[in-house]
Specification:
single chain; 204 residues; mainly alpha; 7% strand; rod-shaped
Length: 204
C-alpha cells in the first residue's frame, strides 16, 4: 500500500484570530526580555557586592609590606621628633649639665654616689644622642669622692688643748708645728676659758 493512503486525509485549521495570535507572541517575547533583564541585574548586583567585600577585606587586612613601611615611617618620624635639637639647644643642655656636675663636685674631690645617681638619671632622660654622649663622658671622667678616715694625728689636733698659761700653749704649738701642718692645719688660736686656763685650738 502506498504511504500516502495510510495518512489521514484532513487539514488543520487555526481559527484563532490573527490579532490574538500576534498578542500571544508579544507576551512571550516580553517575558523573555524581562527574564534577561532580571538576570543581567542580578549579575551586576553580585559583582558590586563582591567588589565591596574585596575592598573591605583589603582595608581590614592590609598588605604586610605596606604595614612594615608605615611602621618604619612612624619610627623615623618619632626619632626626628625626640632628638631634633638645634646646635644652640644642645650647647645649652650640655652647659646646664656641666653646671650641675661642678656643683656636685665639691672642691674637685669627686662626687658622692647619690649625686652620681641623680646625674645619671638626667642623662638617661635626655633624648638627643649627641647631648647624651657628651654628658655621659663628663660624668664618667668625674671620680667618686673618697671618704678617708681621720688619722690619729688629725684627731689629736682636731681636739682642743688646755694650758695654764698662754706661753705654755704657744710653746706646745710651736713644738708640734710640723705635725699639725702635715695633718692639714695651718694656724691656731689661744683663748681663755674663764676659769684661769687657756685653750689651744688648731684651724684649717
Amino acid at each position: 500500500m502506498n504511504k500516502r493512503e495510510d495518512e489521514p486525509n484532513y487539514t488543520k485549521y487555526d481559527f484563532t484570530p490573527k490579532e490574538q495570535r500576534q498578542n500571544r507572541r508579544k507576551n512571550l517575547s516580553g517575558w523573555w526580555m524581562a527574564l534577561v533583564i532580571i538576570l543581567i541585574a542580578v549579575g551586576i548586583g553580585g559583582s558590586i557586592v563582591l567588589f565591596q567585600n574585596a575592598q573591605s577585606s583589603s582595608k581590614a587586612n592590609p598588605n604586610p609590606i605596606s604595614k612594615e613601611l608605615s611602621k618604619t615611617k612612624k619610627a623615623i618620624g618619632g626619632q626626628k621628633t625626640s632628638s631634633s635639637l638645634s646646635t644652640q639647644d644642645q650647647n645649652n643642655a650640655i652647659t646646664n649639665f656641666e653646671d650641675k656636675l661642678n656643683r656636685a663636685n665639691v672642691k674637685n674631690n669627686g662626687i658622692s654616689s647619690n649625686a652620681r645617681l641623680q646625674l645619671q638619671e638626667d642623662i638617661d632622660s635626655q633624648s638627643n644622642i649627641n647631648v647624651k654622649k657628651q654628658e655621659q663622658n663628663m660624668l664618667d671622667q668625674t671620680p667618686n669622692v673618697v671618704k678617708t678616715e681621720p688619722t690619729q694625728q688629725t684627731k689629736q689636733f682636731s681636739e682642743t688643748h688646755t694650758f695654764s698659761s698662754v706661753q705654755d700653749a704657744k710653746d706646745w704649738a710651736n713644738a708640734t708645728k710640723s705635725q699639725w701642718l702635715a695633718a692639714g692645719f695651718n694656724n691656731f688660736t689661744i683663748t681663755s676659758n674663764g676659769q684661769g686656763y687657756y685653750v689651744l685650738h688648731f684651724i684649717k
